[in-house]
Write a structure and sequence with these properties.
471 residues; Methylamine Dehydrogenase, Chain H; 2 domains; four-stranded mixed beta sheet; four-stranded antiparallel beta sheet
Length: 471
């Protein structure tokens, strides 16, 4: 009987305690746990963590460099999601870079690429001396703490509106830079010798015509380079577009032309080659303005495979739910068995909210896997204006996303593959960004190091790029 009594007493006490509020620093708590005064926690920071008493609905916990934390509205200046005390802080190592000689209209950050500890940022409208819009690129290297400028390279042609740096790509010790305004367009190849990036070779379309804009897009992977020429006339189809593939010749230590590819069913003004990506023996080419049936400018993307002798078409991809003006294929990226295609003007819930579609290779064909969009998106965000896939990670830009009161500040989102599903793990923006930065114009990520870079080419004065790392 005594045992039963004490058991009942314990149960009653437990229920009573569960119903009570607990107060620290006060005797009449109104919440389950109410703390009056500072909260201190031991951390790896130089100083203990302190929380300011400024919580509110919709705010996230952010910390400064000293470890002091405050609650900030999403999009406010401060460390935001970059701080390791943020409620959704999956990223860190905020590292913005901008040229010391940057000037309005340079468009530094229009293109970016990253591989390991090396990165490249294009400024396609950089004025070089008296030459307007000649363009330049900046090579950056991670020194273990920061991304430091290694060297700046300007367009070798040295002509007005060369737009050297409109497109960039990097793989190991090789980098390629597009200059679509160099007559019919060109691409320059650089090799890293351990201390400096050295110009190696300039490549062009063997049958170029002035205005083809060869170099509109570039991509390098191993021994292959693909270059898009978005305004190449194919037959009588003006601006249908094309892409050329080059191969590294080990014996001659040079890059040689392999093959020119065009869309056999393409149409005028499709701009096939406005964006390209290559990985191993797979290549993908976007045609953002191609008509699909009666849908004007819906857009398409085509995937090719090297069979040992030539590059052959595998699949021409079309968004089954697409509509006129979607611009499916405005940007593309491929890595292993996965490809991602941006449709920045896709009307998801609102006009031009934007989307990105993922396809995977099932052993015989590339099939649709998943469509991504910003769950909190709004009209004219143009989510999917830039995309990049590396291994199990995808990063997507939305250059006209309004952040708080900042119109067109821009944002980026990172996804990770979990089985057969791609899951959003981080939405972020530049914590000190302002209106019209167009953050997200260009994006790139390295799955091995988990480091990424995002371009904001309209940031004052001449644009900037923001480096970071997935935790």
């Amino acid at each position: 009987m005594a045992k039963l009594f004490f058991t009942l007493l314990f149960v009653v006490a437990a229920v009573f305690l569960q119903a009570q509020n607990v107060g620290i620093g006060n005797t009449n708590p109104t919440e389950k746990l109410e703390v009056t005064g500072n909260v201190k926690a031991d951390t790896v920071k130089p100083a203990a963590l302190k929380l300011a008493n400024n919580a509110g609905n919709g705010k996230i916990l952010t910390s400064d460099a000293s470890g002091n934390a405050t609650w900030q509205a999403n999009g406010n200046s401060g460390f935001g999601v970059w701080g390791d005390c943020a409620t959704n802080g999956n990223i860190s190592e905020y590292n913005p870079v901008a040229p010391d000689d940057g000037a309005t209209g340079d468009w530094f950050g229009f293109s970016v690429a990253i591989d390991g500890n090396n990165a490249i940022v294009g400024a396609k409208q950089d004025d070089v001396g008296a030459i307007s819009n000649q363009g330049s690129v900046s090579f950056h290297r991670y020194d273990g703490s920061n991304w430091i400028l290694q060297q700046k390279v300007v367009g070798p042609a040295g002509v007005t509106s060369e737009n050297f740096g409109q497109s960039v790509s990097i793989d190991g010790n090789w980098a390629v830079v597009g200059a679509p305004g160099d007559a019919g367009g060109s691409a320059s190849i650089y090799q890293y010798n351990g201390s400096t990036w050295v110009f190696m070779q300039k490549i062009t379309d063997p049958g170029f015509v002035i205005g083809d804009r060869f170099g509109s897009a570039v991509s390098i992977s191993g021994n292959y380079i693909i270059v898009g020429a978005e305004n190449d006339q194919v037959g009588t189809n003006v601006d249908q577009g094309s892409a050329c593939i080059f191969r590294y010749n080990v014996t001659g230590n040079n890059w040689i032309f392999m093959q020119k590819i065009t869309d056999a069913t393409g149409s005028a003004t499709a701009e096939f080659g406005c964006t390209v990506s290559i990985d191993g023996t797979y290549a993908i080419v976007g045609a953002r303005w191609e008509n699909v049936g009666t849908n004007i400018d819906q857009g398409t993307a085509s995937i090719y495979r090297y069979n040992g002798s030539s590059w052959v078409l595998m699949n021409k991809l079309i968004d089954a739910t697409g509509e006129s003006g979607d611009q499916f294929g405005v940007c593309v990226s491929i890595s292993g068995n996965y490809a991602v295609i941006g449709a920045s003007a896709d009307d998801v819930l609102f006009n031009s909210q934007g989307s990105a579609s993922i396809y995977y290779y099932n052993g015989s064909n590339w099939v649709f896997m998943q469509k991504l969009s910003d769950p909190n998106g709004s009209a004219s965000d143009v989510f999917g204006s830039s995309v990049f896939v590396s291994g199990n990670y995808i990063i997507i830009g939305a250059i006209q996303d309004d952040i708080g009161a900042n119109t067109n500040q821009g944002s980026a989102s990172i996804y990770v593959r979990v089985g057969n599903y791609w899951q959003l793990i981080q939405f972020f923006t530049d914590p000190v960004g302002v209106a019209n930065d167009d953050f997200g114009r260009s994006v790139a990520i390295d799955a091995t190091t988990k480091r990424f870079v995002v371009g904001a080419y309209f940031a004052v004065p001449g644009g900037k790029a923001v480096f970071g790392k997935l935790n």
